[in-house]
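job 3f2a | input accepted
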Amino acid sequence: MLLYQDLLTGDELLSDSFPYKEIQNGMLWEVAGKWVVKGAIDVDIGANPSAEGGEDEGVDDQSVKVVDIVDTFRLQEQPAFDKKQFLVFMKRQIKLLIPKLDEEKLVLFKKHIEAATKFLLSKISDLQFFVGESMHDDGSLVFAYYKDGATDPTFLYFAYALKERRLSLSGLLDSYSKYHSSLSMDSSV
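job 3f2a | predicted structure (189 res):
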């Protein structure tokens, strides 16, 4: 399994479970998100509760609609940026990324970053902004928007702000354990 982490913070942002399409000369990855229902389990055991005299005995079947990518990678939504704020962010992001890129990527990055920035600026009023779980100030932004007529969001990632990590079975188990231990820490009794 391939995991894509924020090059600057190490936050997990995407995996190869979510196929991407390169756009803007490979500067951005476009990924389809999907609304899913999380939490509720509808079990039909074949009994008729009204005939049995039983009611729902206090079982809390809370279900929540979440976007799969946001939920899987624990992305944190941020307030919207206006054009000026976005340009300030981009200047800082470029400054932070340049020293992290190898020579070949750096040439392509410098050649195409302006067009990718203009592309995002053209959609700025339609974008939702997300960062990784750590919510680090230097983290890369992940963008979401709805294409015309779409009911599920499309996500945009800066390709050069991601580093690929191959997970072995032990790496998968470590990630799984980390995620579930963080869930148990959240429960306060």
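job 3f2a | Confidence is low (pLDDT under 50) at residues 182-189.
job 3f2a | closed
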